[in-house]
Design brief:
- The complex is a heterodimer of chains A (111) and B (112).
- With 111 residues, chain A is mainly β.
- In chain A, the strands form 2 sheets. In chain A, strands 2, 4, 5, 9, 10 and 11 form a 6-stranded mixed β-sheet that branches. In chain A, strands 1-3-8-7-6 form a 5-stranded antiparallel β-sheet, with no helix packed on it.
- The radius of gyration of chain A is 13 Å and the shape is globular.
- Chain B has 112 residues and is mainly beta.
- In chain B, strands 2, 4, 5, 6, 9, 10 and 11 form a 7-stranded mixed β-sheet that branches.
- Chain B is globular and about 40 Å long.
- Classes of the chains: A mainly beta (111), B mainly beta (112).
- Chains A and B meet through strand 5, strand 9 and strand 10 of A and strand 4, strand 5 and strand 10 of B.
């Protein structure tokens, strides 16, 4: 059963543009929502994370927007750079337990 | 760097064989999880160990087994390998109940 749906599957953005990736979840027991960034040949690295009692969290150029009633959350990358080109995964976690990942979004930022 | 290392980096096996993958976590990271990532997909949870006891398992058959050792290292064992077991196997660790899981670089397994 797919519990975290992520879109789009791929995204192409011009340098300086805004990248937006969306996720929807089913499991209301999730209480922690991280975003991971993965480069080819590397393991996922935590980018930013949010708890459901907060509607928005910003760290530098990265912002998570969270809508608990709609069971949706999104990642916004402002001023996208070619170095941001990677695969991004959203995930949900029930405290201290497993991560359930989305299918991933391959982001390409053109110079 | 996450402080999580995995070995080997790449491995080729034939169908029916057995394989052992290894992970070394940071000191104090009592929780370790293993994930399978097929090409072009998100990681799938295999199981989690806390203080050397399995305390959670995903939808994987019993031929996937694990061990966690007191020195913060762990193993993933897969018996009777199948072609579909070809994937990147990721180890993730964290100190106690802290949310952040730190992933290693993974082991790329190819089953022929």
């Amino acid at each position: 059963q797919q519990q975290v749906k992520q879109s789009p599957q791929s995204l192409i953005v011009q340098k300086g543009g805004i990248s937006i990736i969306n996720c929807a979840y089913e499991n209301t027991a999730f209480d922690y929502f991280p975003w991971y960034q993965q480069f080819p040949g590397k393991g996922p690295a935590l980018l930013i994370a949010i708890r459901p009692d907060v509607s928005e969290k910003k760290e530098g150029r990265f912002t998570i927007s969270f809508n608990k009633s709609a069971k949706q959350f999104s990642l916004h990358i402002m001023d996208s750079q070619p170095g941001d080109s990677a695969t991004y995964f959203c995930a949900g976690e029930t405290s201290g337990s497993r991560l359930t990942f989305g299918e991933g979004t391959q982001l390409t930022v053109n110079p | 760097e996450t402080g999580v290392t995995q070995s080997p980096t790449h491995l080729i096996k034939t169908r029916g064989q057995q394989v052992t993958l290894r992970c070394s976590s940071q000191s104090g990271h009592n929780t370790v999880s293993w994930y399978q990532q097929a090409l072009g997909q998100g990681p799938q949870f295999i199981f989690q160990y806390y203080r050397e006891e399995e305390n959670g398992r995903g939808n994987f058959p019993p031929r996937f087994s694990g061990l966690q050792f007191p020195n913060y290292s762990s193993e993933l064992n897969v018996n009777a390998l199948e072609l579909d077991d070809s994937a990147l196997y990721l180890c993730a660790s964290r100190p106690g109940q802290q949310e952040t899981q730190y992933f290693g670089p993974g082991t790329r397994l190819l089953v022929l």
